[in-house]
Amino acid sequence: SKLTSLGQLDMTWRSRVHFHPLLVRVLHKSRLRYYGKPEKKLDMPYQAYFEVADGSGMMSMVLWNSLCPEWYNSMKVGTVLLLEQYAIKSSYPFKTQPTPGDSQMKRFATIEISLNVRDPPTKINIIPEEMVKPEWGLPEVKYRFITRSELDDLPNNHSCDVIGLVTFVGRAERSRKREHGEDFWLYRWAHAIDGTSDQPFILELFATSQPDVFEHIHPMTYLVCTQMRVVRDLTENPSSTIYLTTSNESQIFITGWHKGQPYTKDTKVKNFIQWTKTQNEADQMKKTVIGGYYPFPRPPNNFLKY
Which InterPro entries has this protein been placed in (predicted)? Predict the structure, then answer.
């Protein structure tokens, strides 16, 4: 059928009501957002953002309401979609922006693709990877993996992906979203090593929309975290309190979930797997810890500083 591209949509969307089908690859995926309020009678007030791309560039795509429980888990990073009967809207200005793995990619930031159950009812097709043709010109998913030895040189808020062997995982903790609100964020701390430094990655992992992964992080699993942000305490000793925290677009994977993920082709991931083959499992097991209270960043040594 006659296809359009994101670049053509960007130029012609105001003058059209109906759009030709789109063929795109998912490059980033946000956590699922629930926006229900007691006074609004919506059946399924859910929303999820994806960043999708074709040969012309990258654009945001929004999955709305009852399409979320139906499609959210099937639309993985790397999935190729054929979209028909979608809507185009001006983009929401305050949404978070993931850092693209390919810095050269053009970004269409003024509009977004809207997928709804009606007005118009969107048709979504997932194209199996083995049927994707090179001549479609869809971009590959690219990552920004770093090693632990590179972390100390990175600036605050830098976006990166990491892989490591889990040596510590803390209990799930909660913090209030707002001072006197009823809502909580759920998170846990983890340490992961990759053999390039004596220090582990210190990871603050908020519960994403992957409860089956979040609840099963345990020592000795291979942990991949994408779209992590560097957090530095710039006031105190900067090197002692550097850690990574999840962003709205972070994805977490553990042993058993890696098969078929696009990052398995990445050089740094392959290097890490080679390193793990040189390690003695029993020796690493002795150094692992699970649970307990983990105060971080650590309070100062004396009370006056505190």
Answer: NA-bd_OB-fold, RADX
